[in-house]
Amino acid sequence: MEKKKNNAVEKAEKMQKPKKKQSSSGSNTKNSQSQEKLSKKQEKRQLKQQLKAEKRAKKQKLKEERQKIKAQKRIENAKLRAHKKAEKQKAKATRLREKKKRKQEKLEQKQRILEQKREKKEALKKETKQERKNRKLLEKNAKKEQKITAKREKQQKREQILAQKRAKKQEKKKKRQKNKGFGGWLAAVISLGVVSLVLASVLTYTLLMPSTTDTMLESSYQKSFYSTVEQVDNIDLNLSKILASKDKSAVQKYLVDTAINSELAENEIQQLPLHDQSKEYIAKMINQIGDYAKYLNNKLLDGQALTAKDRENLQNLYYANLDFKNALQEVMKNMGNGYSFSNLENAKNKDVLLESLNQLQNLSVQYPELIYDGPFSDGLDQREIKGLSTNTVSFDKAKENFVKIFNDYSFSKIESAGKTDGDIVCYNIEAVYEGERLYAQMSERDGKLIMFSYAGSCEQVGVERQTAIEKAQAFLKNMGLTNMKEVWFNLANNVYTINFASEQNGVILYPDLVKVRVCAETGTVIGIEAKTYYTNHTDRNVGRATASVQDAKSQVYDGINIESSRLVVVPFGQSGEKLCYEFSGEFEGQTYYVYIDANTLHQIEMFKVIESTEGTLLM
Predict the structure, then answer these.
(1) pLDDT tens by residue, 301-324
(2) pLDDT of 523
(3) Which has more pLDDT, 217 or 381?
(4) Rounded to an integer, what distance in angstroms lies between the CA atom of residue 397 and that of residue 476?
(5) Confidence of residue 63 (pLDDT cuts 50, 70, 90)
(6) Residue 348 near residue 262 (C-beta atoms within 8 A)
(7) CA-based Rg of the chain, rounded to a whole angstrom?
(8) Does 569 have pLDDT greater than 90?
(9) How far is residue 605's CA from residue 598's CA, in Å, rounded to a whole number?
(10) Contacts of 615 (CB under 8 A, 6+ apart)
(11) Which of 38, 151, 470, 484 is the most interior residue, by most CB within 10 Å?
(12) Spatial distance between the Cα atoms of 430 and 437, rounded to a whole number of angstroms
């Protein structure tokens, strides 16, 4: 009985043990399922956070790109406004001068008529009856003839105006077509650099500036001076804000404003009738402030931060501008009511404005050098001059070379005007051609023509475009420059400006650039700027493009209707160069030039062609 009982107990225990196992297994399954759910939730959360972070980064990148585009647009618009403003002032001065001239002619004509009337009255006193009758008949016939002639002239004038309108429309079409084939890196190279700014001011002043006796011109000088004061004050304000700001967006805004103020101030300074030596220091300082502001703005847009050295440079520029601001304020105090800006052309150092500018230049030893990746960097002055040897020549040899180059010019006087120091040391030569002054610089090394400007006037267009190009090429040949190809052409104020670059195996070398000015009336070469050429010209190993033209073309925006392409070498950074494909084409009625690296396929630069009163510009 007991044995049976034990067996029953054992059976009960066996039956209970498996049930315990089942219970444990079910619990484990539930735990693993809950862990899996939790893991999935965490993965979803992480993925969601990652997507949000990517979205934020993308949004920030788009915002920075938009800011960069806006900044560039503001600078471009400021340049256009400055151009238009300068042009309006010139046009006003010209109109007033012409009005004055017409008034004087009317007065002279009136005096002649009065004199004729007096003479006629005296003659009539002695006239007989028959003579009077004959005279009246002649006068009647003369009046009839005069009416017929006036009617004929009126008809001819109407036909002439219609013909001019038709010709103008044709010329516009031709110009648009011709400009399509030329490249445009030169605008960025030539328009930059203090020497070319000085040359531009010489040519503008000697060829375009109206008479100093014109009261309207005096008014425009006053306006330019006080606008300069205003822009220098704005630069001072913006630089002080940059130095006191930590926020990146705020600093970018102030940098863009500084760049715009610099553009406007430099434009106003160039309108003043100052000698080149008086302009040079302040022009460089103002340009360098604007250029450095653009450089730092691009640095911030690329995601970098301003370094301690950047801020130190900004502070030095701030103090340099402050000196200029204080000097201008002092000038305004000491000017007096009778001060005339028109007299600056012939004024000596005793003039209150010139005295202040000369003092600023004497303080330039305290002005720090700025070396950075920009066109107004002081580092550019330290570059090797590749296009000149180390052989120095005497002034007599330089003068001899000068006479050979200008063999078609009959000079009444040639004399030395001292020497100019700088990265290219030059002998200065002054000559007189057809009663007007010609100023030239011949390099001490090799005795090459670096620049010249002629003060003769050009009143109308009498020479065709192709003739002007041939005249310029012949002059370059006299200088010893061959394999030069015209790469840009512009007609403004009756002067052709033609830019040439050297060509090597079909590749245009934009760093080797020469700017030639030809009078459209006479076809005479009236200006040369060759410093860029002699600074950069050397025997190059251009290399081969690893990317095809089709690959490069695919990097250009699809909306641009590409019309031409070619291989070019363009300047890059302070002293570098890049082999690029140059594409020109139209987008929404505007012409663009796009430069794509022939190896990396990165866009190096883009220019837009703008038609203005100054002709065709690249911006």
Answers:
(1) 878 888 888 888 888 888 888 888
(2) 94
(3) 217
(4) 19
(5) confident
(6) no
(7) 37
(8) yes
(9) 13
(10) 490, 491, 492, 497
(11) 484
(12) 7
